[in-house]
Design brief:
heterodimer; A: about 300 residues; mainly alpha; about 0% strand; flat; B: about 300 residues; MetI-like fold; 12 helices; BP-dependent_transpt_permease (chain B); transmembrane (chain B); cell inner membrane (chain B); OppC_N (chain B)
Chain lengths: ~300, ~300
């Protein structure tokens, strides 16, 4: 167990380093410097700027300087938003993304597990069909189609909810984005739960529990549920990474001032440092999240002993 | 029925030469029996055909403006069967041309990522040991990366040329195939029928060609149909975010993005490309399911 944990943690470091290095090199391989604007800058200003951002140094030195500042939690300065550091921009955007992502993750897990359990226990029931419809729809209607349709129905036709925007953590503005992210994730959790529970219900110890004379409810709650959750935990990592991707689309569709919107805007404005900083940040979060999930998985499943 | 009539019939059946069915004939028959899969395949072929030759047959160009009919609802006038967008361009032709781009990027990126995945997985599976371990750790690493962000970064930095979009998508779409092929290669390598083939003196190349490759192809075919929608989706997402192919060129993702902007006043501009994309994805999924059922010999 400890050796597995250690190996898994050690694997994380090269993953992060490779991503950061590749992104950094990509950034430097592109033609054109960050200050080659349409407006010509005077030579002195350019020299000052280059000195400030260490652009005159050799590449390896710049790279090490960047790594050093990363280790100190400094993502650098934005090239497009004057007077803003990437850190400032991230700190403003992060609460939005975390709120939307966190709430929808919890909802997706709770609803998905509930739906999956009902679908597994009552196969071919309405709940089972509902799960099947959601998961089929999820594979055919991408988030950037479902999102606009939600806006069309609930904001434009019914006028129940605002079509987009944020308005400082107002609940009414959160409903549709959270709903979209939940719809995207709920089918995955539901399908895994359903499959897992069906498998567990066929095992010998469940038959033993029934043979003891326990009611179906007790068997499911006390004996079946815990082993059912093990595969569900294992999808939370990929799900979270998928949510980050989905969040980029969701924030674009609903014009939310979150991390995803920041990345897309940064990419459109060719704000290299901002995009690089955000990619590095999100990758670190995703890789660490994956690590935690993997460790939790190994810890939860008594059959897995590394 | 009298016994006398049954026995000659039976004898004539037994007298017929025994004709074996190859696994492929078998799979084709089972696929043909799956109505939903066949219908989906037909729809897919029709959409592909329409995208390929439709723009040549229709009188409107995808980038020319009909000044008299801007934001027109679907109409028979001037062949604007899907209506026109807010700059008066014919939506039907734009959808078809966009479909060309989406399907071409989808097809090419699938081909490259499937090839990469097969080669990667087969090498890892056959060689085994440390090489296998190292190669699979790289796959693990790729899984942990939120690919869309790196894709955004790559497209931003490298540019939005057609082949660069294909490259970007390929980099993040090959891992599933690599994992599956490796697993299958490992499993097949230790199967009894391989041992049996070896025991009766089949050569190594014979074993690979007759026993390993056919057993690999089934799963490769299935996972290819799983890869295609993912690849098309990635392209659409990039286009939707304004990071795919550029104006006046278009793709389904770009068209959906355009439609979202005007959906309050002209919802059909969103609905037609969205419907085309969804129908295509749905059909590919059905074909994939059909293939899985047809190619899995255990599940009859």
């Amino acid at each position: 167990m400890w050796s597995y944990t250690l190996r898994r943690v050690l694997l994380t470091v090269p993953t992060l380093l490779i991503v950061i290095t590749v992104c950094y090199l990509l950034l430097h391989a592109t033609p054109g410097g960050p200050f080659d604007g349409e407006r010509k800058v005077s030579a002195e200003v350019l020299a000052n700027l280059q000195a400030k951002y260490h652009l005159g140094e050799p590449l390896w030195k710049q790279y090490l300087l960047y790594l050093n500042s990363l280790l100190h939690g400094d993502l650098g300065a934005s090239f497009r938003y004057a007077d803003w550091s990437v850190n400032d921009l991230v700190l403003r955007a992060l609460p939005v993304s975390l709120t939307i992502g966190g709430v929808s993750m919890v909802l997706a897990i709770v609803l998905g597990v509930a739906l999956g359990i009902v679908a597994a226990l009552y196969r071919n029931s309405p709940a089972d069909y509902l799960l099947m419809i959601i998961s089929n729809a999820g594979s055919a209607f991408p988030s950037f189609v479902i999102g606009p349709v939600l806006i069309l129905v609930f904001a434009i036709l019914l006028k129940w909810l605002p079509a987009g925007g944020w308005n400082g953590f107002h609940v009414r503005y959160m409903v549709l984005p959270v709903a979209l992210l939940t719809i995207i994730n709920v089918s995955t959790v539901g399908r895994v739960t359903r499959g897992s529970l069906i498998e567990v219900m066929n095992t010998n110890y469940i038959r033993t529990a029934y043979a003891k004379g326990l009611s179906r409810w007790t068997v499911v709650m006390r004996h079946a549920l815990r082993p059912t959750m093990i595969p569900v935990v294992s999808v939370i990592g990929p799900l979270a990474i998928g949510s980050i991707t989905a969040a980029v689309v969701t924030e674009s569709v609903f014009s939310l001032p979150g991390i995803g919107k920041l990345i897309v805007n940064g990419a459109a404005n060719r704000d290299y440092t901002l995009v690089l900083g955000l990619v590095v940040l999100v990758t670190v979060v995703a890789v660490l999240l994956n690590l935690l999930v993997d460790l939790a998985y190994a810890w939860l499943d008594p059959k897995i002993r590394y | 029925m009298k016994q006398g009539t049954l026995v000659p019939a039976l004898e004539s059946v037994l007298a017929m030469p025994v004709e074996g069915r190859s696994p492929w004939q078998d799979a084709r028959m089972r696929f043909a029996r799956n109505k939903a899969a066949v219908a989906s395949l037909v729809i897919l072929l029709l959409i592909t055909l329409a995208c390929a030759i439709g723009p040549m047959l229709l009188p409107n160009a995808f980038d020319s403006t009909d000044w008299n009919m801007m934001s027109s609802t679907p109409t028979f006038a001037n062949w604007h069967l899907f209506g026109t967008d807010d700059t008066g361009r014919d939506l039907l032709v734009r959808c078809l041309v966009g479909g060309r781009v989406s399907l071409m990027i989808g097809g090419l990126a699938t081909l490259t990522s499937v090839t990469l995945g097969i080669v990667w997985g087969a090498i890892a599976g056959f060689v085994g040991g440390r090489v296998d371990n190292a190669m699979m750790r790289i796959v693990d690493m790729m899984y942990a990366i939120p690919y869309l962000l790196i894709a955004i970064l790559m497209v931003t930095l490298l540019g939005r040329e057609f082949y660069l979009v294909v490259l970007t998508i390929t980099v993040f779409s090959w891992m599933d195939m690599a994992r599956v092929v490796r697993g299958q290669t490992l499993a097949i390598r230790s199967k009894e029928y391989i041992e049996a083939a070896r025991a009766i003196g089949v050569s190594t190349s014979g074993i690979i060609l007759r026993h390993i490759v056919p057993n690999l192809l089934g799963i490769v075919a299935i996972y290819t149909t799983v890869t295609v929608p993912g690849v098309i989706l990635t392209e659409s997402v990039l286009s939707f975010l304004g990071l795919g192919v550029q104006e006046p060129m278009t793709s389904w993702g770009v068209l959906i993005q355009d439609g979202v902007g005007v959906m309050e006043t002209a919802p059909w501009i969103l609905l037609f490309p969205a419907a085309l994309l969804s129908v295509t994805l749905y059909c590919i999924n059905f074909v994939g399911d059909g293939l899985r059922d047809a190619l899995d010999p255990k599940d009859r």
